[in-house]
Amino acid sequence: MKQLILHILAFFYRPFAKVMPFQTFRYLACGGGNTVLDIFLFFVFYNFVLKKEVVQLPFIALSPHIAAVFMAFLVSFPTGFLLNKYIVFSDSNLRGRVQLARYFLLVAVCLMMNYVLMKLFVDYCGFYPTISKILTTVVVVCFSYITQKKFTFKVKVDPESLAETKAQASSPSA
């Protein structure tokens, strides 16, 4: 399945090859697909499952747009992790459990950002929930890409190869 996805992405990457690296394209395609899935699930949960009604839990009442965010998360979290681990950042040499823990931490921060921004846009600005979700997603996706590349799926540099690279860089050219 991984190879099939990579071949499809490589085919569609050709027109963008001069504009961006393949990894960035993979992130945009996989993240975009997962984001579309997340927004679609949000829309379905909000409008058809929850029917725009408050969700009463034992200790708290959740507004339907906030409950729908959490419900969509239950699907988009595992799909997002798997796509990022195996398709986008497959060159990361961190252990899988470290990646998963870091991804979970990042997603927790992104979920909190989603919560705060959704509350802001819907409850304080009066925007329609689906439009608010799209605006929120733009902000969160930018933050997420940078964090995943630099933290969650970073490539650990081997100290020996780093020393070798520094030695080669400092030696005079012939």
Main sheet: strands, sense, barrel = 2 strands, antiparallel
Number of helices: 6
How far is the N terminus from the C terminus? Answer: 48 Å
Residue stretches low in confidence (pLDDT < 50, at least 5 long) are: none
**DSSP strand tally:** 2
Oligomeric state: single chain
Shape: globular
Q: Roughly what is the average pLDDT, rounded to an integer? A: 89
What structural category do the secondary elements indicate? mainly alpha
Topology:
Layout (H helix, E strand, L loop, with lengths): L1 H12 L8 H28 L5 E2 L4 E2 L1 H25 L7 H29 L4 H24 L6 H12 L4
Antiparallel strand pairs: 1-2
Describe this structure in words.
The chain is mainly α. The chain contains six helices and two strands; from the N terminus they run ααββαααα. It has helices spanning 2-13, 22-49, 64-88, 96-124, 129-152, 159-170; strands at 55-56, 61-62. Strands 1-2 form a two-stranded antiparallel ribbon.
Can you give keywords for this protein?
2% strand; two-stranded antiparallel ribbon; 174 residues; single chain
Question: How would you sum up this structure in a few lines?
Answer:
The chain is mostly helical and 174 residues long.
